[in-house]
Amino acid sequence: MNKVELFNLPLHRDERGNLVSLEFSMLPFTPQRIYYLYDVTALRGGHAHRDEHELFVCIKGSFEAKIHDGNEWKTYLLDAPGQALYNSPMIWHQFENFSSDAVMLAVSSTPYDPDRKGYIMDNGL
Known about the structure:
The protein has no helices and twelve strands. The protein is mainly beta.
């Protein structure tokens, strides 16, 4: 089942500041890799994955996620620390309109694939 879900990670506030936590047990996959994007000046993503699950987290700033689930396009604005977007395999995703201070964290179910064998680069739309 192709699935996209937008949610907020738990936020803990006290007099010392704010802390957002990501418990791997809350994910519908086993994390194998974490990476992050910053100083982004062009579209990122622009593909789907055959088997990879990903969670994209807004750490700072803002960006838009444009998602196609095989039926329709949806755009999600991620603009607060701890906002997260889960993508199952076979979901087309691309990211754009990054603010100058944006930092996006990604949690992936697979190791890095430099040959992009598990990627779908043509959305057929």
